[in-house]
Structure formats: C-alpha cells, structure tokens
Amino acid sequence: MQTTSRRYFIDWIRVIAIGLLLIYHVAIGFQPWGLMIGFIANQKSWQSLWIPMAMLNVWRIPLLFFVSGMGVYFAIQNRNWKQLIIERTWRIWLPFVFGMFCIVPIHVYILQSYYKTGLKYTPDPGHLWFLANIFSYVFILSPLFFYFKRNEEGKVVSAIKKIFSNPLGLLLVLTAFIAEALIVKPYPYELYAMTWHGYFLGLLAFFFGFCFVISGDPFWNMIVKWRWLFLSAAILLFILRVVQFNMAAPVYLLVTESNCWIFSVFAFGFKYLNRGGNVLTYLSQAAYPVYILHMIFLYLGSMLIFPLELDVHLQFVMVLLFTVTGCFTVYELIRRVNLVRPLFGLKRK
Known about the structure:
The two termini are 29 Å apart.
C-alpha cells in the first residue's frame, strides 16, 4: 500500500461532526418528546428547531461511520493486524468499558435526580454504543482491509479504484444502503443507537469509507467535480421530505438524501478544509474526550438552566455553552494526566 499523507479534511469533518452531535443532543432537550428517549426535557419547547435537526439526523451518524472507516486506512499504514487490534483495544474498547461504568451512570444519576424517580442503574452503553460498533467492525473487516493492503496493485483494489473514480460508482453505495433499509425495515430510519439497522448501516459506511480513501485522488476529484449536484439533490430531497411527506418520506428517498449530504460534506471538505494547523491539532485531540463527556454536562446544564424563567432561545444557547465549556475544561485536566489519558482515548505522552 502506497504511503498516503494525512487528509486533514477528514480530521476537520470528524471535529465538525462531533460539534453537530453536541448541538443535536442539546436540541433534543427542547422537544416535548425528549424524556421519552432519556433526555431532560424543557417545559418550554422550541419545536421549530427540529426542522434543521431532522435534516442533520439522516446523515450525521452515518458520516461518523464513514470517517471511522477512513481512519483505519491510515492506521494500517504502519501496523500489522495484531498491532491494529491492540491499538484499537486501547483507543476504543477501554474508553467504552470505562465510560459505560463510570461516565454513563453520572448522567443517568442527574436525570433521575431531576425527575426524582429513584436512583438505580443497569450497565448500559448509553451514547457510547457507537464505540462498541466501531470496535466490532475492526475485527470483522480487518482481514479484508489487510488483504487490500497486501494487494493494492491487484485486480480487486484496481476495480475499487476504477468504480469510485466514476460518479456512477456511487450508485453501488446507494444501492447497498437502500437494500439494508429494505431488508431490516427500520422505523424510524434515524433510529441508529443499539439497533440492527444502526449496526448494519454502520458496517456498510465503515467499509465504503475505507474504499473511498484507498481509491485515492481520482475519487476525491470526482466528487469535487459533482459537489453542486450532490448538494442540490440533498437540499431538494429535504424540502420534499418536509413539504410533501411531513418528515415521513419513503426509505429509498431518505437513504438517497442521506448519501447526497454525505457526498457533499466530503466534496466540500476536500476542496476547502484540507489544511492542518494548531487549531485542528487541538480540536482533533479534544473531540473524542468531549464526545465521551458531553452528556454529563448537557444534563447538568439542563438541570440548572431549564427551571430559570428565561427565553427558550437564550436557554438553548446557555445549555450549549455550558456543555461545551464543561467538556473542554475537563479535557484540559485529562490531557495533562498521563494515567487518565487512555481512559478517554488519548495516547500516553
């Protein structure tokens, strides 16, 4: 496998996706059904906020699965199979187990205290379910990825590169995701957490993310060329979902919209975000610990701010700022303590 320089735009997309995750989770607290999925819900709803959140919801999680698959490509450049498993065990499995027993119980305790439901906890991955999925994908797909690594000039990898240098190759991706949805029949489509739909969708995105990176510049140049078509299609399909289908579009349209958003993000990211720097270095390191921690500060901020007699829009901003500030403050402590760093997915210094 040829040496490939780090694609900075992939790191930017990962950071942005984590940021959107925080905004999305804050927005759930302002929906009347927030409590039904385990969030502290404000008595003052901001229901129109859900329109842009519904747009995000069909592609934000699949995007992270794509990016995770891309990350494996770079991880195996200088590692063998055993080294990859050991590295991913420390980086993914350890934070997952630690989080399930030491992080998730804290925000569950805050939720139960707020609603005075009595304190109890059954081990649950909570928002960290994503990590368990990713860890299993590494085991399942590593043999295939290392086969690609050993045979990059072979027929299979050459065929992958040829397929994804052409926009018609993306129809293969679209067909795979539509087939998954038709077979699994998810309802709603956006229910990814701890479902078979979320698992198989993630597996497909993880695989195709790797394929996109191994395809090299011909793939990236192709999607940049067609970026406005992808973006226009995504916007039109979203408008159709809102106006014509009242957010309940047929699954094949949801899948198509989701993929068009994702192709757009990668295309515009490649064109405009492929540069490093100190800001990216800092945020890229912080993204993982912030993802692990954010539910604690989201619930704590909700508990403190929701009872206040304030405008609902101001409350949203305050909860978001409280969550971000709390996460980065604790991250500053974590990154300075060598013993704690691995528990949040950071390498020891």
